[in-house]
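Journal club side-thread
Mid-discussion, someone asked how the predicted structure for our own chain would compare to the paper's figures. Pasting it here so we can look after the session.
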Amino acid sequence: MNKSRFHKFSSQGFTAICVIVLSLGIVSVTWLASAQMVSEKTPAKGNAALLEAFRHVEVASVSDALEQIAGQRMYMTHRMQPIFASKFAGFAVTVLLKKAEANNDPAALNGMLAAIDQGQADSVYVMVVEDGANIAGMGGLMGTTMAARGFAGAVIDGSVRDVAHLRKIGFPVFALGMVPSTSVNHYRFAGANIPVVCDGVRVEEADIVVADNDGVVVVPRARAEQVLALAQEMDFKEHSMYPYIEKYKSIEEAVKKFGRL
């Protein structure tokens, strides 16, 4: 083969290879940038990990951590009771019902139902029923829908009915009581995913609601990671204290050593 032709071919071939490599590099960088952008826009995995972590800490520790960090009482009162022993964590979907006596509008509560059908998995349905201690804010039909959609649970500032069915399907609900009454024809939908005050605690859309046998606590979303870290630290100390107390039979010495009560 002619040397000049070979040299020309080699140069052209080398140039072509460089172009291919450069193109692949650009494609790779573009793909990585695109993937990073998708990751930043889709924090679903981060949300799932956050909730999973909250499910493994004591609600009492979350309450203590909030008090230390925010100086606020974010726990609901002793009136808010579970229909069965349960533990959950999820993002708040808020609903407000207002009194509307002798209300015959068939669409008066449609927004309450739409909030359920539009809710995502790991939601907690937080409903405030105005002066609703003797009104069932939800029952078996709503609970069945929430369970089917993957809701974590419900917190009702009002009462609940169809308790046997809710226990049967294992859907956790905290409420002020159990009554056979209905909100139909007595209440109207007043808003969803708006700030509400549930049993004395302000709840906003996407706040984290945690509940266990000690009660219900609301964690403002903006403080969630900070509260979680402190609650985990508190849990570790407290759980370390149990065997120490059993061994040395002294809570005073345990508090001195671990600084937790």
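Post-session note: The first helix runs from residue 3 to 41.
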